[in-house]
Amino acid sequence: MSGTTDIVRLAHATRKRGGDPPVSEVSGVILVDNIAYEKQVLIHYRDATGEWRDAPARYDSAPPWGSPERWVFSGILYPADYPEPARFAVRYLVAGREYWDNNGRHDYLLDPEGIVFGDAQLFGVDRLQRIVEFVGWRYHMDVIRLEESMPIFGRGHISRYKVTIGRSMGPGRYAHARCVGLAVRGADVSVLSYTACESIPPVELVSP
């Protein structure tokens, strides 16, 4: 299995709990170079039993000039209480050749209620921006303050952040201030905790 290539790349993937009965579902977006009309885009993932499977992505759209095409996937399901990261890579079959985006041979790891972005090599530069995007996606709020905590060592190096978030009500003014604990592993951002802040950040908090 080769490493990450620009010919196929994960844009982002999310893992959310929902449904009745509840399940944990992985879905996302892939970008592929339009090399030929006939092609297959597959998600190569490990299921809850440890078996590796392939799930097809489906064509969504393309720019007028034809490339890159946008493909989407969903329906990769785990038990609602499955605690382990979803492990997957992207496989692209076109013109008799096979291309992979497997996060530089490490695969993508997606925690429950998490989001993972496809530019892992640039993640160290873009980490703050990724956290801001995650807070906006998950809570529809803004980042007020960010503090880095001690890293977690285990399944790879995991950084921890205490992030004060709130809804902006104007310059320096926020409502609904809360603190969220985030774990960052590579390009994966997930929630550790969500609670009232122990200390009020140095901004003016206003009533909603």
From TrEMBL:
Start and end of every CBM21 domain? Answer: 2-111
Q: Which domain of life is it from?
A: Bacteria
Provide the Gene Ontology terms for cellular component: protein phosphatase type 1 complex
GO molecular-function annotation terms? protein phosphatase 1 binding
PANTHER family noted in UniProt: GLYCOGEN-BINDING SUBUNIT 76A, PROTEIN PHOSPHATASE 1 REGULATORY SUBUNIT
Return the protein name: CBM21 domain-containing protein
Source organism of the structure: Sorangium cellulosum
